[in-house]
Amino acid sequence: MRTVALCGVLVSAFPLAAQGQRPAPRVEIMERLRIEHWAFFDPGIAGVDRSYTFAASLLRVGVGGEAKPEGEWQFEVSQVLFAGLPSNAVAPAPAGDLGFGATYRRLNGRRDGGLFLKQAFYRRRNLAGLNSWLRAGRFEFGEGGERMPSHPTLAWLRRARVMERLIGPFGFTPIQRSFDGVEFGRNSSQGAFTLALLRPTRGAFDLKGNDQLRRITFAYASWAFAPEPQSDARLFALHYRDARRPPEVVKVDNRPLAARQADGEPLAITTLGGHFLGWRRTREGRGDFLLWGAFQWGEWGLLNHRAWGLALEGGHQWPQRPGQPWLRVGYFQGSGDGDPNDRRHTTFLQMLPTARNYARTPLFNLMNNRDLFLQLLLRPQPSVSLRLDWHWLWLAHRNDLWYAGGGAFNNSAFGFVGRPSGAKARLMDLADVSLEWRPRPQTTWTLYLGRALGREVVGSSFPGGRRATFAYLEWLQRW
């Protein structure tokens, strides 16, 4: 019933567009149901729900169409429902929220659902007779998605290992996030240029997804191109400003609490970076490689900010072998801060990422992080894919924090969690496996299981037990 009702609201909102000379508006519907199970690290506190199961539903209904001249519009709403959220899964600091269910309940109280505007934009094509476009309004945005390569190896690397490292819609959570602003793009035979000026909405964990975070703004520019047919590259610049201040929002870093509470200056951070992907034929298949890097500078409140991140990855596919195995190995390092008492901040900032893309059991992110991993992808049937990952994780600097989170999502939380390291560097080992089945092009079933074994850093915040499990079963249907 809720699908029919939302469709009726959307179609009736645009009667003039439907009656014009253009084709009738198109309606798109997506339903995603997920059952999540968490068994978090044990804080050693009686009565806290570290193990629980809950359900989440996301319904997105959109209507879009053509507009004169050379334009298109889209309007989309999103409805989220939760069932079975834990009532007591937040432990005293430093343990904090014991999984996503705890965060949903803490931020939204007894509220278990919400309806909000997901997208509402107009897009004008062929500006000034050029192969260019301008989009304005509210829409989803993910850096790294410009001019996707056509080769399947490069396309998978771009989607899974490049996109949304720094800016993304946080697509894993049912609430997600959108962006308000303008985006310009121009395509040519040499490459694709993109320029955007945007502000994020509330969301991710906060059900009040209509509101804009007006004190956060970023500007993004990129040039995506193919140096040769078997490669893909991008150069980008990103300036991020967060002017939220204490006492509502206190920065999360390794300084003492009193120093952070007294720091009312904004974040103003510029990032320059890029990526290069390539593949080569081998005697038995294809080899691939990936390079991604970024350097940051600016102001972290009262501190000077200098930080960096670097990813190196390589792999090989055997498409003629049973299961078409694809074995990959990679290493990432995001810089950390070694001195909480100096005038510099050197922890790499992820800003507004889709963090779960790079931490599928979301117990960490790419800040103050060293991640060595092995990855195996299998496709035993055209409709079935299997992925197995193993990560060995350290902190980049033992005097910094163990960070997690995906960036700002409201005006009362910084958006990142920082737990003490205990002056240790070894964080955890993480193994996970996912099975995806697509019986039809519009239907996807996903089963995921992640198992973490915490090391010395985890033990300093969770003395009761260092093992954690995250699992879910998901059904996604599009119409």
CATH topology: Porin
DSSP helical segment count: 6
**What is the CATH architecture descriptor?**
Beta Barrel
Going by helix content, strand content and strand pairing, the class is: mainly beta
Number of strands: 23
The whole-number mean of residue pLDDT values reads 94
Quick take:
This protein has helices spanning 2-12, 15-19, 100-108, 152-161, 257-261, 456-461; strands at 26-39, 51-67, 71-83, 90-91, 96-97, 113-125, 132-139, 179-187, 192-200, 216-225, 231-242, 267-281, 286-300, 303-317, 326-334, 344-345, 369-381, 384-395, 402-404, 417-419, 426-440, 443-454, 467-478. It is mainly β. The chain has one domain: Porin (Beta Barrel).
SSE blueprint and pairings:
Elements: H1 2-12, H2 15-19, E1 26-39, E2 51-67, E3 71-83, E4 90-91, E5 96-97, H3 100-108, E6 113-125, E7 132-139, H4 152-161, E8 179-187, E9 192-200, E10 216-225, E11 231-242, H5 257-261, E12 267-281, E13 286-300, E14 303-317, E15 326-334, E16 344-345, E17 369-381, E18 384-395, E19 402-404, E20 417-419, E21 426-440, E22 443-454, H6 456-461, E23 467-478
Parallel strand pairs: 14-16
Antiparallel strand pairs: 1-2, 1-23, 2-3, 3-6, 4-5, 6-7, 7-8, 8-9, 9-10, 10-11, 11-12, 12-13, 13-14, 14-15, 15-17, 17-18, 18-21, 19-20, 21-22, 22-23
